[in-house]
Amino acid sequence: MDGPPQLPPELWVYVFSYLSTEEKHTVRSASRHLRKLVEHPSLWKHYIVVLSELRRYTYGFWHTLNHRKLTRVAVRHLRRKEWRRLIKFLPSLTAIVFMDGGRQYKEKYLDNLARFPELREIAVRNATWDEALLGPGLTEHLRERLTHLSVCNVRLPSTVDFISTVSELSNLRYLLFHEQGEGYGLDTVRPVPRSVFHSMLLGLKKLRHLSWGMKGEPPEPLPDDYLSPPNPDQPGSYGGPALTSLELVDYPETLLPENALRSLTSLRSLSVRYRYIREGVECRLRSWISPLQQLESLTIIGGNSLTTYTTTLPPRVNSLTLRVAITLKDMDSIAPKVPGLEHLDIEQNRSSGSLCRRIPMLFPQLRTLRIRFFRREPEKDLLSLHKLRHLVQLELLVERSFILRDYLNGHPWPSPCVQELINELRELSENRITVITAMRQRNLLRECDCLWEGD
């Protein structure tokens, strides 16, 4: 065949939408015709291009980015001339991620953001600011425009001043703030004061997703109503935004009271990520989720044994992620609580037992399943998953050290034995199940180092 089949361009674009970025670039180099098709803007709509040393890029490179209508970039550190290049060649940026700057910055560093009229999303990672991160001029420019703000592992001169500034961004829908601390050297992390935090929530009426975390452990627990600002017009009622998604990152068990989430009746998604568990402290997760009967998605990373809270899982949960040691007994206790579960993400180690054999009986409605194997490979019981009649996607992952060890011995992942099982599973399911064995691509805009589970 001299060229690709003569298919309508829109059909080719649809086919290419299933390719990874690397595969798209491979197709791009095959022929001029395919290059034109694979450059269609719809294929790059949510892509984030990582830029460094901007002076090395040619006019052709910038032309390609503009042809794809790319509006999202990630950068490490921009010098003055690089700012000029970015403004000149990508004036329609809608999102920018400053990652791993590892430097000390002044307030004026971000002032150039005011020169991007379409900017809606900003993320800042791993850096130190000597002065305010968002100055008065930039804040005024972004007040009605910014919808997403993500700040993680950034040392600020004053956390209180920063949060007070954030409260002015009235159009925010998404806020991620993982507190690092103030000043330099070792210090005790001080939570944002209740009054300042409440003022922020009262000002951000459109906020729907909140990811809140801190490094270190404060000396005293937070007030009972920390997450529930009172309505100034109706005393006694909740006055904050109608959050649909809440993420608590690195919160010690004793920091939040048992009734901390009781007022968040609009929540549909809850994620709790523990850094460690102190022995002798009663698990409060049970009391946190008990009143949240409207929850549809629940993620627990680390923490106490599953037996301490599985009996209180809300029945409407259809997506469940558990990064804790899990046994067959745990699975048996979870299944009756979430009869409509469609998405399950778990880990399996040597003590877990034959989970794959039990899953079809316990969770017959599953549409996606993700299993991360520790110190072992999938075994023949994997074939039992073809009994899940609604399953369309299966992710099989192993820890990176396992892959590296086997690569050194000449055994790639998936190994020949696992690949044979995968082929057999596909055959049994009549190719209904898509099997993925590689970690998905990281979303640099949403996933900071605290949240990313890749190696």
TrEMBL record:
The organism's superkingdom is given as: Eukaryota
A Pfam family found in this protein is F-box-like
Name used for this protein in its record: Uncharacterized protein LOC106531557
Residue intervals of the F-box domain? 1-47
- SMART domains given for it? FBOX
**What residue range is the signal peptide?**
none
Q: Where is this region: Disordered?
A: 218-240
